[in-house]
Amino acid sequence: MTTSLADVKAVLDRLYNPAWAESWDAVGLVTGDPGQQVGKVLFAVDPMRAVVDEAIDGGFDLIVSHHPLLLRGVNSVAATTPKGRVVHDLIRSGTALIVCHTNADNANPGVSDALAAALGLRDTRPLKAMPTDPMDKIVVYVPVDETQAMIDALAAAGAGRIGDYDRAAWSATGEGTFRPLAGANPTIGEVGAIEVVTESRVEMVLPRHRRRAVVEAMRAAHSYEEPAFDVLELASLPGQLGGGRIGTLPEPLSLRDFASVVDRGLPRTEHGVRVSGDPERTIETVAVCGGAGDSELDRVRAAGVDAYVTADLRHHPATEARAYADGPALVDVAHWASEWPWLTDAERLLTAGLAERGSTVDTHISTLRTDAWDLRL
Length: 377
Prior knowledge:
Strand order of the largest sheet: 5-10-12-13-14-11
Strand content: 25-35%
Number of strands: 15
Shape: globular
Number of helices: 12
Structural class: alpha/beta
Helix content: 25-40%
């Protein structure tokens, strides 16, 4: 079965939903026709000149990159600029480009999951958890013999889905009372007479974006002219999506030995591995953040971990973090190296996702080192 660019994008959007990207980011399809066929896919951290040449020379139909080619708005993609030339060459050669940046950072599994796995961390959880999708709870009162039919109707409209379970509901019985007024057309009772009815209180949760559909389904299924119901907005809770990860080592190590684990687990760069802290300090709990992570230093310290592995640590944030006696040891690696392990995960997950749809592509991970630094003296 042939694979279209739209097929590949659909799988990637499911793995790395563009809605998970930060507001300032530029992710998704950059070049390419959704209808074009894709036979070969190249994964890379940076859509740089060398990577684009590798893709064109190798006959790849698509580059899946982590970093954007055009992060900020531009007024021109003329071939007189380096990025403009890349855009022209991609289009001329029919090579598509899809970017999965902060949407891949916030995914689960995402960029920091791959970094944590490369360092052998276990029992990981998000460092900066995104809230779960906004949820409501609907509470409706129905005659007892209508309980199951009401649950069915609400479930069909999208309520009652919790994890791997659907039609999840809670009910209890009690007495409902009302008096129909002039102009009413009561299902039970008579105008002007007080009625007492044994009713079920039915509760079900629902995604907030399904609120209108669920309320309409409730009204359609209810036998009463004026159903009694409530819609409650539930508090947001931390979810499993989000940036960074916190985990534990299989066994405690000295900071010196842990730094060696980091060095062996990531591809070599001229940047190397920089360490801040007592080399003999015991390391057991570790926070990681693929890419530039000094903006999360306060969050890391509040988490109480022993060490923090990230990239692009600047002088002032690092020295300020070291001033706290309860702060973590710092392990600074090259930006490119911290994100490169994700490529293997992305390749595996895309291949599996396409296989579920009955299609395949040839894949390759670029080993070109696109770190910015070439020599360290």
